[in-house]
Design a protein that fits this description.
6 strands, Fumarase C, Chain B, domain 1, about 475 residues, Ribonucleotide Reductase Protein R1, domain 1, binds arginine, elongated, mainly alpha, 19 helices, Fumarase C, Chain A, domain 2
């Protein structure tokens, strides 16, 4: 586009003799990003115009013309014919300019007692509020599938790990429910954030408020905010709501990444605990036997992107003096992208969890390896022989060494071999050395026993509705 044709198009161009350079326009324009807030922008304008009319700042006729013009803009947005124009910089000026084309003079009254500084952050709060609701919903869907799969596997025994070394047998249901707990806290953080951000900056104008007798309570209420923000300087420049959203999202994505990592491990030939469905596996272009867990790997990587977006936004904000500065325009790209990525990750995890098949035999066999019931043996010595736990730990250690030497697992030692280490051991000890007995015995609240897991599954099913 030639500079000539842009002459006079800038809404703020009154004091300028020459047009901005093309590159200036490119770095300055945000329409490709902020067009996603078109609905929020129109909602904000409707509330503002209604309030201006109610306060007698504009006439009822002008308000009517504005509202009808905005109806037309909405229709154009819906049918995809709304003309987004880069030379109009951002969504606010695009909507206003189109309104002017549609209704003429009354459009020029809409911006009374308002600035793009309060307008943009009003839109952005509304958008983020909606995105937080959607993120919470997607996590709830994932929780539901985790709970469902946990219900199918309350008594499926697998190895529990510490340091990725076999530690003690656990149940798969217990393992899956651990993620349900994490995700519940993630949802609570997102919910907290949504409540804290739900205050209206509209009416703060450029930075200092306005001399017009506006009613900020009315616009706050119309837009579903709890109340107007109390300090106009804070209102136009605060972005901690976006930082909080991205940090909460980053923590939630970290949890998705941990679950993704489990899937990568479990579906490997070495673990062989699970198999992804065809819909969630990819092949290799050279190795015909491969079933790759690409989606899980990408969730792992994308969690870092979200964390990076949080860090980038924090960097953009941390050295800004009050009030608005154009640096704040780049908050939206980061935030939109983080929410998009997050939605994709949550949906992918749900898809994988819903359709993954678990191999009970392999899990059980792995649980029995690595002396996983050694603690049960030590606990038996404490219970039956009244040994102090530290001594029992020592005796068990000797038995493990003996089994290791023989190249067998603990239950494969004979009673005689055991009694050579501790003569008071009886045949009864074998009853605690199976992985099922071990898992079943851990009935403490929060423990891995199938009865406790079944209770938790029941509670979560009720809770998630
Ligand atoms: N597009 C701008 C943004 O996203 C709107 C606010 C512009 N305000 C200004 N004083 N230039 O931040």
């Amino acid at each position: 586009m030639a500079s000539e044709s842009k002459k006079g198009q800038q809404m703020w161009g009154g004091r300028f003799a020459a047009q901005p350079s093309d590159i200036m326009q490119s770095i300055n324009a945000s329409i490709d990003v902020d067009r996603r807030m078109v609905r929020e922008d129109i909602a904000g304008s409707r509330a503002h115009a209604d309030m201006l009319a109610e306060q007698g700042i504009i006439s009822e006729e002008d308000n009517l013309a504005i509202q009808e013009g905005l109806d037309q803009v909405v229709a154009e947005v819906q049918e995809g014919s709304f003309p987004y124009r880069a030379e109009l910089e951002d969504i606010h000026m695009n909507v206003e300019a189109r309104l002017k084309e549609l209704i003429g003079e009354p459009a020029g009254r809409l911006h009374t007692a308002r600035s793009r500084n309060d307008q943009v952050v009003t839109d952005f709060r509304l958008w983020t509020r909606g995105a937080l609701t959607e993120a919470r919903r997607s996590l709830k869907v994932l929780q539901r599938s985790l709970v469902k799969r946990a219900g199918e596997h309350t008594d499926t025994v697998m190895p529990g790990f510490t340091h990725l070394q076999t530690a003690q047998p656990v149940t798969l249901g217990h393992h899956l429910l651990a993620y349900v707990e994490m995700i519940e806290r993630d949802r609570a953080r997102l919910d907290d954030c949504a409540r804290r951000l739900n205050e209206s900056p509209l009416g703060s104008a450029a930075l200092a408020g306005t001399g017009f007798t506006i009613d900020r309570d009315a616009t706050a209420e119309a837009l579903g905010f709890y109340r107007p923000m109390a300090n106009s300087l804070d209102a136009v420049s605060a972005r901690d709501f976006a930082l909080e959203a991205l940090s909460s999202l980053s923590i939630a994505a970290t949890h998705l990444s941990r679950l993704a990592e489990e899937i990568v491990l479990w579906t490997s030939a070495q673990f062989a605990f699970a198999k992804l469905s065809d819909a969630w596996s990819t092949g290799s272009s050279i190795m015909p036997q491969k079933r790759n867990p690409d989606a899980a790997e990408l969730v792992r990587a994308k969690a870092s992107l979200i964390t990076g977006q949080f860090a980038a936004l924090q960097g953009a904000v941390k050295a800004l003096p009050l009030a608005y500065a154009k640096d704040l325009q780049d908050d939206k790209q980061l935030t939109f992208s983080a929410f998009d990525t997050f939605g994709l990750c949550a949906a992918s995890m749900t898809g994988m969890i819903e359709t993954i098949t678990f191999n009970r035999e392999n899990m059980r066999a792995a649980a029995a390896k690595g002396f996983s019931t050694a603690t049960d043996l030590a606990d038996w010595l404490v219970r039956e022989l009244k040994m102090p736990f530290r001594d029992a730990h020592h005796v068990t250690g000797s038995l493990v060494a003996k089994a290791e030497e023989k190249g067998c697992d603990l239950p494969e030692l004979s009673l005689e071999e055991m009694q050579a280490v501790e003569p008071r051991l009886t045949n009864d000890v074998f009853s605690v050395l199976t992985v099922e007995a071990s898992a079943m015995s851990r009935q403490s609240y929060g423990g891995t026993s199938p009865v406790r897991v079944a209770e938790q599954v029941e509670q979560w099913t009720q809770r998630l509705g």
